[in-house]
């Protein structure tokens, strides 16, 4: 077999396999697991942040906000539970999830400015409402 005849199919097969692998990348965690393991502890850190002083305390809030962004990233594809991929494909789900992600970005800005009032406002006015809206619509399904 000539080298060309061998290499070309290999390239094609590699491309095919990697696109299949991507399409089949399935969620590992259920929505409930993501809520309990990532969203709840990290948002507690953000909502509980008060009179932050040391660099470490601000860093902790920053890491919490980054984790919320990671959770939102997972939630945009859905969870491993039954029907949770289809649920996440709905525009309302995407919208609430995006609001949570945007709120976490506001938290990051507040942290960067070391502005506790902005942090408080981002937590209450931006981060909390999408929890409520999404739960009202999807928690009981
Ligand atoms: C995009 C939708 C969505 C957003 C946004 C969302 N949640 Fe959830 N959450 C759910 C769904 C769906 C459930 C129900 C999961 C189940 O019972 O299988 C849930 C359940 C929960 C639970 C209960 C877990 C349990 O053990 O029953 C907690 C706590 C929770 N969410 C916290 C939060 C907090 C805090 C926020 C906001 C920072 C938030 N969630 C934002 C969809 C969302």
Description:
The chain is mainly α and about 140 residues long. The chain has one domain: Four Helix Bundle (Hemerythrin (Met), subunit A) (Up-down Bundle). The protein is built from 6 helices and no strands. Helix 2 packs antiparallel against helix 3, helix 3 runs antiparallel to helix 5 and helix 5 packs antiparallel against helix 6. The longest helix is centred in the middle third of the chain and has 23 residues. It is globular and about 70 Å long. Bound molecules: heme C.
Low-confidence segments: none
> Which CATH class applies here?
Mainly Alpha
Bound molecules: heme C
The backbone outline, from C-alpha atoms, is globular
The CATH level-2 architecture is identified as: Up-down Bundle
Summing up helix and strand content along with how strands pair, one would put the structural category as: mainly alpha
Radius of gyration: 20 Å
Number of strands: 0
**Percent of residues in β-strands:** under 5%
CATH topology: Four Helix Bundle (Hemerythrin (Met), subunit A)
Mean pLDDT score, rounded?
90
The helix/strand series, from N terminus to C terminus, equals HHHHHH
Largest sheet: none
Distance between the termini: 58 Å
Q: Please work out how many helical segments DSSP would assign.
A: 6
